[in-house]
Amino acid sequence: MYDAVIIGAGPAGLAAAYAAKQAGLDYVVVERQCIVHTIYQFPTGLIFYSTPELISLGDVPMIVQGLKPTREEALNYYLKFVESQGLKVNTYEEVTSISGEDGDFEIRSVSQREGAQCYRTRKVILATGAFDSANRIGVPGEELPKVFHYFKEGHPYFDRDVLVVGGKSSAVETALTLYRAGARVTMSYRRGAFRGIKYWVLPDLENRIAEGSITAIMDSRLKEIRQTEVVLEVAGEERVIPNDFVFCMTGHGPDVPFLSGTGVEVQPEDNVPVHDPDTFESNVPGIYIIGVITAGNVSSDIFIENSRLHGPKVVEHILAQNGVS
């Protein structure tokens, strides 16, 4: 019987594990991919906006070469954090069900190495993130192998016709990186103007559009993806353009079916799981929600800087319930 099973090994989950260990709780972290898988999915060479102090965990400093950490430095830091602190993390193990009640939950999972697993635990901490479930557009052809919902790097797309769908920071940065890698880039955005873009990125995009290096088709909607072309709807008319690859940078959200399967209620308008903002306990007693998943559809409200503080608060609540201050 564990005191807590933490599902998800992102920064929030690791911070919770560290706090649990410091408090003397018997815990384990179960992660269906690699450690900090979301950060692994970030584009190669990405530089964080945050300083090292704001995304480090516990009392372990993050050492970087520049003023801001890169994706690669962050990946190395979190791996070293797990190793140096001796955290118990089971990777490549996917949770399939959570049942039971506060004080006695049963968690079933499938491990890549050991096969079917079963845990009993007093508390469950969900830190599953919201980047593994991409918001699909729902158009014919979206299942083609040339369509992606994540972007890693621009090198493979040199001299190719690439469509980037979306108009927020991730879409804009994807378009700029593809352009610099030699791709012929077209952007399709359903609005008439770009919004919510990092202030230092917008001028770069506007200059590339003005000089004709990137084509931006505003007030447009992707209607169909074909093998060698895409169909856009612009001002009520269809426009067919040549295409080799499509990046649908239309955002991500939590795994709602998984949450609902645990009994956690999710607000339909924004996919925010019902939870106490002070203790992070969900509507299901004994099940806690931490990390970016607390914001539902991915937004700028929750990020590593503040979500790393969620786990310690949960551990405090668990200890308080046990009469430990």
Fold blueprint:
Layout: E1 2-7, H1 11-22, E2 27-30, H2 37-40, H3 52-55, H4 71-85, E3 89-90, E4 93-101, E5 104-111, E6 115-126, E7 133-134, E8 147-148, E9 161-165, H5 169-180, E10 184-188, H6 202-210, E11 214-217, E12 220-225, E13 229-234, E14 237-242, E15 245-248, E16 252-253, H7 256-262, E17 287-289, H8 304-307, H9 310-321
Parallel strand pairs: 1-2, 1-6, 2-3, 6-17, 8-15, 9-10, 9-15, 10-11
Antiparallel strand pairs: 4-5, 5-6, 7-16, 12-13, 13-14
Helix pairs in contact: 1-9
- Please tell me the CATH architecture of the largest domain by its name: 3-Layer(bba) Sandwich
Global Rg: 21 Å
Shape call: globular
- CATH topology heading of the largest domain: FAD/NAD(P)-binding domain
The profile of the biggest β sheet is: 7 strands, mixed
**Poorly predicted sequence stretches spanning 5 or more consecutive residues:** none
Annotated CATH homologous superfamily of the largest domain: FAD/NAD(P)-binding domain
CATH class wording of the largest domain? Alpha Beta
Q: Count of DSSP E strands?
A: 17
C-alpha end-to-end distance: 22 Å
Structural class: alpha/beta
Mean pLDDT: 94
Summed up, the domain count is 2
Number of helices: 9
Order of helices and strands: EHEHHHEEEEEEEHEHEEEEEEHEHH
Characterise this structure:
This protein is an alpha/beta fold. The protein folds into two domains: 2-132 and 252-321, FAD/NAD(P)-binding domain (3-Layer(bba) Sandwich), CATH 3.50.50.60; 136-248, FAD/NAD(P)-binding domain. The protein contains nine helices and 17 strands. It has helices at 11-22, 37-40, 52-55, 71-85, 169-180, 202-210, 256-262, 304-307, 310-321; strands spanning 2-7, 27-30, 89-90, 93-101, 104-111, 115-126, 133-134, 147-148, 161-165, 184-188, 214-217, 220-225, 229-234, 237-242, 245-248, 252-253, 287-289. The strands form four sheets. Strands 1, 2, 3, 4, 5, 6 and 17 form a seven-stranded mixed β-sheet that branches. It is globular. The relative contact order is 0.16.
